[in-house]
């Protein structure tokens, strides 16, 4: 009996010593050459791309060029649709920006239509791609679920100015200029009557000055405004036959505003007439350089008379 009690005490003592030993080993911090395993969740989080931040066109509609891919959202960035084109094709031609935002007027992004002008190598082997690119329009009518591609023109010199717009579901226009040499360039207008599926080239205006802006107020009436380098007077041209012919509009400038209001913006419909704002150009200094002159026309834009001075916030 006595021997059993002694054996039991020895076993208890051995267990106590072993427990203390293993406790000390587990609580000792790792040495300089020791490593501890960490969960790989942090690595997986860091490898994920940063969330897209919309550039808003009209809240909640916006787009993103992050990760070198054009994507659009109609839900404040909660859901995105990828536009199946290469980012660099959106900036082809004479462009020197940082490519962080799309070129103004080169796209449409509304609830009913998403459309983007771009240029890439011609789709036909018969065109010399060294001279120019094919100008195309990629568009969607279902918020980016499906996309269609349309060729605006098979070949065009390196483009400087570019603009696309639709005034209704079927009629739209593309205005481009290119092949710039010093202060001269080529300007071309293309029209569509089937929502952008096919495009036709209009007659060329007899002007080679640098294009400032242009647009249509209806299917027949369109305007082109020229002169961006040291303009001294507005140079507005008009078509009343859907681009079959162009002529220079007559702007009756009051003596007070000679050499002040020198660049015509795109005319627009207002009540029973047309209206247009004339700005002061890049070098204007009249009343701070931001005041514009408002002119109106009652003959579909062929002639214009002065109406009033307009503050900047009235013309935005």
Protein topology:
Elements: H1 2-27, H2 41-47, E1 55-58, E2 61-64, E3 71-73, E4 81-82, E5 107-109, E6 114-120, E7 133-140, E8 148-156, E9 159-166, E10 172-181, E11 184-192, E12 200-201, E13 211-216, E14 222-226, E15 235-239, E16 247-248, E17 250-252, E18 263-264, E19 268-270, E20 273-279, E21 292-297, E22 303-310, H3 312-315
Parallel strand pairs: 17-22
Antiparallel strand pairs: 1-2, 2-3, 3-4, 5-6, 6-7, 7-8, 9-10, 10-11, 11-12, 13-14, 14-15, 15-16, 18-20, 19-20, 20-21, 21-22
**Number of DSSP helical runs:** 3
Main sheet overview: 6 strands, mixed
Category by helix and strand content: mainly beta
Rounded to an integer in angstroms, the radius of gyration calculated over CA atoms is 33 Å
Average pLDDT metric = 87
How much of the sequence lies in strands comes to: 35-45%
The coarse overall form would be globular
Distance between the termini: 107 Å
Q: Low-confidence runs (pLDDT<50, min 5 residues)?
A: 25-46, 124-128
What does the oligomeric state look like here?
Answer: single chain
Tally of extended strands?
A: 22
- Topology as H/E string? HHEEEEEEEEEEEEEEEEEEEEEEH
Q: In which range does the helix fraction lie?
A: 10-25%
Could you explain the architecture of this structure?
The structure is a single chain. By secondary structure, the protein is mainly β. The protein has a domain of 97 residues. Helix content is 12%, strand content 37%. It contains three helices and 22 strands. The strands form five sheets. Strands 17, 18, 19, 20, 21 and 22 form a six-stranded mixed sheet that branches. It is globular, with a radius of gyration of 33 Å. About 9% of the residues have low confidence.
């Amino acid at each position: 009996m006595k021997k059993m009690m002694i054996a039991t005490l020895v076993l208890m003592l051995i267990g106590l010593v072993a427990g203390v030993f293993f406790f000390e080993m587990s609580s000792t911090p790792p040495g300089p050459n020791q490593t501890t395993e960490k969960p790989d969740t942090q690595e997986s989080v860091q490898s994920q791309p940063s969330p897209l931040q919309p550039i808003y066109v009209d809240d909640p509609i916006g787009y993103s060029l992050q990760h070198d891919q054009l994507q659009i959202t109609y839900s404040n960035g909660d859901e995105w649709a990828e536009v199946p084109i290469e980012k660099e094709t959106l900036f082809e031609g004479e462009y020197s920006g940082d490519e962080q935002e799309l070129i103004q007027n080169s796209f449409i992004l509304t609830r009913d239509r998403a459309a983007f002008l771009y240029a890439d190598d011609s789709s036909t082997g018969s065109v010399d791609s060294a001279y120019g690119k094919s100008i195309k329009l990629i568009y969607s009518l279902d918020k980016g679920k499906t996309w269609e591609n349309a060729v605006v023109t098979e070949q065009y010199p390196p483009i400087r100015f570019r603009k696309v717009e639709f005034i209704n579901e079927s009629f739209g226009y593309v205005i481009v200029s290119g092949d710039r040499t010093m202060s001269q360039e080529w300007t071309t207008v293309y029209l569509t009557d089937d929502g952008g599926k096919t495009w036709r080239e209009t007659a060329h205006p007899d002007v080679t000055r640098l294009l400032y802006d242009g647009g249509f107020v209806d299917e027949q009436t369109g305007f082109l405004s020229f002169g961006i380098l040291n303009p001294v007077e507005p140079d507005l041209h008009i078509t009343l036959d859907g681009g079959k012919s162009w002529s220079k509009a007559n702007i009756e400038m009051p003596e007070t505003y000679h050499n002040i209001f020198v660049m015509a913006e795109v005319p627009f419909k207002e009540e029973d007439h047309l209206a247009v704002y004339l700005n002061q150009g890049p070098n204007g200094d009249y009343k701070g350089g931001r005041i514009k002159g408002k002119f109106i026309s009652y003959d579909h834009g062929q002639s214009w008379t002065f109406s009033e001075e307009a503050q900047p916030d009235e013309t935005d």
